[in-house]
Write a structure and sequence with these properties.
The complex is a heterodimer of chains A (about 600) and B (about 80). With about 600 residues, chain A is an all-alpha fold. Chain A contains 27 helices and no strands. The model of chain A has no long low-confidence stretch (mean pLDDT about 80). Chain B is flat and about 40 Å long. The chains are: A mainly alpha (about 600), B mainly alpha (about 80). At the A-B interface, α24, α26 and α27 of A face α1, α2 and α3 of B.
Chain lengths: ~600, ~80
């Protein structure tokens, strides 16, 4: 329920926000373009996986000092630690660098970003990265049309960066309206509360302006106008450092868990560094004075002193955190675990059962039924039906004709997690149990193993069948649609029969086993009927030759699936203790006998 | 015929031979009774319907049950 209403609610809130505030629209558009850029960037870097870039990154980040240096140099060039952290997140998401190396880059980026403070202090300006957005987008898109995998990748990286810059630009523009509402003088408070308050303001201002450099300019202006004290200015700089992590956090939204861990590392580093800087603010002020005096910076040159402070506390942060880099990595791995795959687990296979042949067979049969249930879900959804539609007593043909809903799911992934894992457990259990079984029981065990194998085959056939079934059940051509619905019907009908027999309380195993032969004959007849119908509708141009070929191929999958299902049911409905059922197993018709019986 | 299919057929034949000796005639007799009852039910249903689709299905099922009945008799005779 919540899942169904969440998306419409978000869309409505956004729509309302766009209606009432053009600034909000700009900010939201900025975030969207930014995330779009992240996706491009990840795709682009993936093109280089296993190539030159990977080797280069591995060589330049395989030691902590190297990754630190990488962060320092790249941030000094790009003049944005946020951008470097976002690119590093995409490196990690593409599997190009490890988490530890990524953390090293982030630490380095924090030192690299101090060069910006020096630039601001020295020249009062910064490199305007948004100016590169448009050319990058154009070059990126031109390159992404090329055939070469690497050119395409480079195009995606350029376009991604272009979108990132553009997104940041729109976010800044959107927040421009809030910029003037900061009246710092009215907030001046002495002591530690003031420090924490101004650190929070610095963080908020950086989040709003999407640039710690812009916050630095704001601090310098406020200092020059004596709106704030020197201490408060330092606290603002500390806060700006923390606020800059928001870009990485937004970037991590579209990243995998490794990317999220890196954003976490960035946040932890900047918060820890900030707390340390505030806690030891007196010592830092003393150190700034010592350094400033030694390099000839005047006592009242707050601009330069702020740059010294920025460099010193980031260096201190790196010195504190580098020895803890592996612990930080382990902490993040534990705190942000990989989402566990929803793996099916065997329910009845216990090591303790292996000693007793009767228990082995009972457990095994239950487990094969369990496998059948898992496969049933995939098969039903594979032919775009709900399990309940198959299991109820509603008219199946009508249900199928009316149900044109496509079930979106990853059949390959579910096959791995729900079918293959159980099949492997069954095969493993049988190989362990074999040594304890007499030939009488071995035969039954072999039959069950084959049944499990046939269930797996069924899912594989459904996988092949799914593409055209989904395509043609939605076709405007009623003839091909009807034929594909007949294929869906055949599988659904067999599944329904099997579950009906399984659910019978006083099931007559012998009759149930032999009834499967009747269904096999029906399948055989359906095959013959289909051949006649295809020739007819193809001759009358009611379907195209391509449709006819698809139908013939897919019918073979349905045919195989049906046989496997029925053979499996015959094995599973057999009861070792029922001697009439044992006799029925001998009377089960072979393929030739079925063919003979099905012919009119 | 593929080799795997050949092996499968051979396994089936060997299996049948071994198991054929094990089945008690009494159980086959019981099975024949069940099949005869079923055959009668299908015949009654066939007589009661004019729907060509249903008739075709019932006729197919009848032929299967008859073949199974015949097979069980042969097994009993061979025993």
């Amino acid at each position: 329920m919540l899942k169904k209403t969440l998306l419409p609610t978000i869309l409505l809130i956004l729509a309302y926000g766009f209606w009432v505030s053009p600034d909000f629209k700009e900010i939201a558009a900025g975030v969207s373009i930014f995330l779009f850029g992240m996706l491009f960037l990840e795709d682009g870097f993936k093109a280089f996986t296993g190539g030159v870039l990977e080797k280069l990154l591995q060589k330049t980040t395989n030691k902590t000092w190297k990754s630190l240096l990488f962060g320092v140099v790249s941030t000094s060039i790009m003049q944005s630690s946020s951008l470097v952290s976002v690119i590093t997140i995409s490196f990690i998401s593409a599997g190009l660098v490890t988490l530890v190396a990524g953390i090293g880059i982030i630490f380095g980026a924090n030192i690299g970003t101090t060069t910006g403070a020096w630039l601001v202090a020295a020249f009062g300006l910064k490199v305007k990265i948004s100016a590169y957005a448009m050319p990058m987008l154009v070059f990126g898109i031109v390159l992404s049309f090329q055939k070469s995998k690497y050119l395409k990748g480079a195009g995606a990286v350029l376009a991604g960066l272009g979108f990132l810059f553009l997104g940041i630009h729109y976010m800044k523009e959107g927040f421009e309206a809030f910029k003037d509402s900061f009246d710092l003088a009215s907030l001046a408070v002495a002591g530690y509360p003031g420090l924490f308050l101004f650190a929070a303001i610095g963080a908020a201002a950086t989040v709003v302006m999407q640039s710690s450099h812009a916050t630095l300019v704001l601090i310098l202006t406020a200092l020059a106008a004596s709106q704030i004290t020197y201490d408060n200015g330092l606290a603002l700089a500390i806060g700006a450092n923390v606020g800059t992590t928001i870009t990485a956090i937004i970037g991590a939204l579209s990243a995998n868990v490794e990317g999220k861990r890196l954003a976490g590392a960035h946040l932890i580093f900047n918060v820890v560094t900030g707390v340390v800087a505030i806690a030891f603010i007196s010592q830092f002020i003393w150190a700034v004075d010592v350094v400033s005096n030694s390099v000839g910076i005047a006592d009242d040159n707050y601009t330069m002193k702020l740059a010294v402070f920025h460099t010193l506390f980031n260096l201190a942060g790196v010195l504190i955190m580098v020895p803890l880099i592996h612990r930080l990595s382990n902490f993040l791995i534990k705190s942000l675990p990989e989402k566990a795959k929803d793996l099916a687990e065997p329910l009845y296979l216990s090591e303790a059962a292996i000693e007793f042949p009767e228990t082995v067979l009972k457990s095994l049969k239950k487990e094969v039924w369990h496998l059948f249930d898992s496969a049933f879900e995939l098969m039903a959804h594979g032919i775009n039906l709900h399990r309940t539609e198959i299991l109820t007593s509603e008219d199946l043909e009508k249900t199928i004709d009316n149900d044109r809903e496509v079930h979106e799911f990853d059949l390959d992934e579910l096959y791995e997690s729900k079918v293959k894992v159980l099949y492997s457990a069954i095969v493993d259990f049988i190989s362990n149990a074999q040594a304890h079984m007499s030939s009488d029981f071995s035969e039954e065990m072999y039959r069950l193993r084959r049944a499990a194998g046939e269930i797996v085959e069924c899912v594989k056939h459904i996988k092949h069948l799914r593409k055209n079934t989904t395509k043609y059940m939605l076709s405007d051509n009623e003839h091909i649609r009807d034929e594909y619905n007949k294929l869906r019907y055949q599988i659904a009908m067999i599944l329904r029969e099997i579950y009906r027999l399984r659910g019978e309380e006083d099931i007559d195993h012998a009759i149930a086993i032999l009834e499967m032969d009747e269904l096999k004959a029906e399948v055989q007849s359906a095959h013959a009927d289909l051949d006649v119908r295809i020739t007819e509708i193809l001759r009358d141009d009611r379907i195209t030759p391509i449709m006819a070929t698809s139908l013939l191929n897919d019918f073979n999958y349905v045919d195989e699936t049906s046989r496997h299902l029925l053979d499996t049911a015959q094995a599973l409905l057999f009861s070792h203790s029922d001697l009439v059922a044992e006799a029925a197993q001998e009377v089960v018709l072979d393929e030739d006998e079925i063919e003979k019986a099905s012919a009119a | 015929m593929k080799f795997s299919e050949l092996v499968e057929k051979a396994e089936k034949l060997v299996g049948k031979h071994e198991k054929g000796k094990r089945i008690k005639p009494k159980k086959l007799g019981k099975l024949q009774q069940l099949l005869s009852d079923k055959k009668s039910r299908y015949e009654a249903k066939l007589a009661a319907t004019d729907d060509p689709g249903k008739r075709q299905k019932l006729e197919t099922r009848l032929r299967v049950v008859s073949a199974q009945l015949e097979k069980s008799r042969q097994l009993q005779a061979a025993d």
